[in-house]
Write a structure and sequence with these properties.
Blueprint lengths: L2 H5 L5 E5 L9 E2 L9 E4 L12 H7 L1 E6 L2 H10 L4 E5 L2 H12 L8 E6 L4 H15 L3 E5 L2 E4 L2 E2 L12 H13 L4 E5 L2 H5 L8 E6 L7 H4 L2 H13 L1 E7 L6 H7 L4 E5 L8 E8 L4 E7 L2 E7 L4 H16 L4 H8 L10 E3 L6 E5 L4 H11 L7 E8 L6 H9 L5 E7 L6 H9 L10 E3 L3 H11 L5 E5 L6 E4 L2 E4 L2 H17 L4
Parallel strand pairs: 2-3, 3-4, 4-5, 6-10, 6-11, 7-10, 11-12, 12-13, 13-14, 18-22, 19-20, 19-22, 20-21
Antiparallel strand pairs: 1-5, 7-8, 8-9, 14-15, 15-16, 17-18, 23-24
Helix pairs in contact: 4-6, 5-11, 5-12, 11-12, 13-14, 14-15, 16-17
The structure holds ligand UAG and adenosine-5'-triphosphate (ATP).
The site of ligand UAG has 22 residues, from α7.
């Protein structure tokens, strides 16, 4: 398509060199992928400046190059007169706008539901996808656990941990639409909002879960973190708000002008829908959903109080889209849980093993509260410092777990370029008594899982927290495949085999 001819006024173009009025067959933001007859957008990142790869992009066959460094573009324009160069105010905004045009605004053909908050984004987005599928709206999901259409996982390699770059986002929307999906539940992170990955999208529904300090390595202050998250509600038609949250619920309620639904786990609150009498069983949770004067007795295969809050958020989305509560509650009865979020395994060695992504102090507190309600002999918990996230929260994780479990394993997720033991040491500084005999150190997540299993006996409850993003550990810039489930499976297979031949 010829983006320039069609829309150059809306793209924030300041100056051009050469003739940008030409057909382009694709857009790229990575010079290593550029193909003939395409548009390359130069992005200034944390490690590289895309303008440094113009030469490579020209060699790759880029027909048009856009960026926000006028001097570099002009310099290259003289060197490559056959290539067109476009100077824009902001390259990330341009990438988002150009991607929207390239995909012919396909995102407007589907219901876009953006989920933001410190904890619960993956769960809520997965619940929205599952609930809406169950009610008959083919729905996809975009977020930490990958990209899914209503029919299954898409073969799309993730370039970011959670929210894709704008170009990738619109590519996925296009694929979802072509597969027949009519709704996309998208995790929208503060980093993505700051980096304009969702710019230009007017979300049909924006959902808020909660806000506590996170990503301070990126935003530096809590206020800036909150500001970034609030941006989602300035580009949404309808909102869903957790009024139990002290972090930013009131900010949204004060500023949001469109239709808004609230949810709460406090039966005495003023929320539009509330849950009361929450009771957990081995199959899931039952509760009373209160909507005005009406009470609906409800059951859903989800575990933990906070997952009832997450479910209420998904139900509010269904209500916003015009569905009736009884139908939504029927759909909730067969809702699917996302991988690694309160995933309960009963099948190994007469133990209960829980895989949960809790990697912030509040998430760990909530998780402990929930798991302690489950029947168990001893409680064994693994916590991790995450090498690619902020270090400030690491000691806080230790403070939360100290005295709360019979055995504690301290390990590492995604050491990145750090020495893994430095991460473990950083977590250990949070313990009052780091030398306690029930605290064990493991330099890799693999060894951490094995230590937890070695320490366990029948009837024990083993909780493996933090979780590894996308089935891999990030070590020195490389993704090393990792699966807690595979380790557990192998461990019990080997233990059983060893018992059978009388080694143990
Ligand atoms: C801090 C951050 O957002 N980083 C993202 C960013 O990387 P970067 O800024 O380091 O990019 P860079 O390597 O400096 O490169 C700049 C530009 O030059 C280009 N380049 C680079 C090299 C080259 O040879 N040719 C070339 O064209 C790159 O493609 C890029 O466009 O742009 C990359 C390309 O899209 C992302 O992969 C990368 O995500 C990294 C993996 C990451 O860890 N991001 C985290 C911080 C993140 O975004 N997290 C949030 C929240 C997670 C959550 O809470 O769930 C998320 O939404 O995922
Ligand atoms: N509503 C909630 N309130 C508090 N804690 C929650 C809530 N939902 C989930 N959690 C906890 O947070 C963990 C992470 O949940 P989830 O993956 O859904 O959040 P997320 O926001 O997507 O996380 P991330 O930003 O790291 O991708 C869960 O495993 C659980 O321990």
């Amino acid at each position: 398509m010829n983006i320039y001819a069609e829309q150059h006024r809306t793209l924030g173009i300041e100056k051009v060199w050469g003739n940008p009025d030409k057909e382009i067959s694709a857009i790229y933001y990575d010079s290593r992928q550029v193909q003939t007859g395409t548009l390359f957008v130069c992005i200034k990142g944390e490690n590289h400046d895309g303008h440094a790869y113009i030469h490579e992009a020209v060699l790759g066959g880029a027909a048009v190059i856009a960026g926000d460094d006028a001097a570099k573009l002009e310099e290259h324009a003289h060197l490559y007169p056959d290539t067109a160069f476009i100077y824009v105010k902001d390259a990330r905004s341009f990438l988002a706008a150009a991607s929207i045009l390239f995909y012919k605004r396909v995102h407007e053909q589907i219901i876009t539901v953006g989920v933001t908050g410190t904890n619960g984004k993956t769960t809520v987005a997965a619940y929205v996808k599952s609930l809406m599928n169950n009610i008959g709206v083919p729905s996809g999901y975009i977020g930490t656990i990958g990209m899914y259409s209503s029919k299954g996982k898409l073969d799309f390699s993730q370039t970011t941990p959670t929210t894709p770059e704008s170009l990738d986002m619109h590519t996925i929307f296009s694929e979802l639409y072509s597969k027949g999906d009519r709704l996309a539940a998208i995790e929208v992170t503060s980093v993505a909002l700051e980096q304009k990955r969702v710019e230009g999208i007017q979300f049909d529904v924006a959902i808020h879960t909660n806000l506590t300090p996170e990503h301070l390595e990126f935003h530096h202050t809590f206020e800036k973190y909150k500001e970034a998250k609030l941006k989602l509600f300035r580009q949404a038609k309808k909102a869903v708000v957790n009024i139990d949250d002290e972090g930013m619920a009131s900010d949204i309620l004060e500023t949001f002008k469109g239709p808004l639904l609230t949810y709460s786990l406090n039966p005495n609150s003023t929320a539009d829908i509330k849950a009361a009498n929450i009771k957990m069983s081995s199959k899931g949770t039952s509760f009373d959903l209160i909507a005005g004067q009406t009470i609906y007795h409800t059951e859903a295969p989800v575990f933990g109080h906070y997952n009832i809050a997450n479910l209420l958020a998904a139900i509010c989305t269904g209500l916003h889209e015009g569905y009736q509560l009884p139908d939504l509650l029927l759909a909730a009865e067969s809702i699917e849980n996302p991988e690694g979020r309160m995933e309960v395994l009963h099948e190994y060695g007469n133990r209960t093993i829980i895989l949960d992504y809790a990697h912030t102090p509040p998430a760990l507190i909530n998780l402990l509260k929930e798991v302690k309600k489950m029947p168990h002999r001893r409680l064994i918990v693994m916590i991790c410092g995450i090498g690619i996230r902020d270090r400030e929260k690491m000691p806080k994780m230790a403070r939360v777990i100290e005295g709360q479990a019979d055995e504690i394993i301290v390990s590492v997720d995604h050491p990145g370029f750090n020495n893994p033991m430095d991460i473990v040491t950083q977590v250990m500084t949070g313990f009052n008594n780091p030398h306690a005999r029930n605290i064990h150190k493991a330099p890799t997540r693999h060894e951490g899982v094995l230590t937890a299993l070695d320490l366990s006996s029948e009837q024990d409850l083993i909780v493996l927290t933090s979780g590894c993003i996308n089935g891999a550990q990030i070590v020195k810039g490389k993704k090393i495949p990792h699966s807690d489930r595979a380790i557990i499976h192998e461990y019990f297979d080997e233990t059983v085999a060893a018992k059978q031949i009388g080694v143990m």
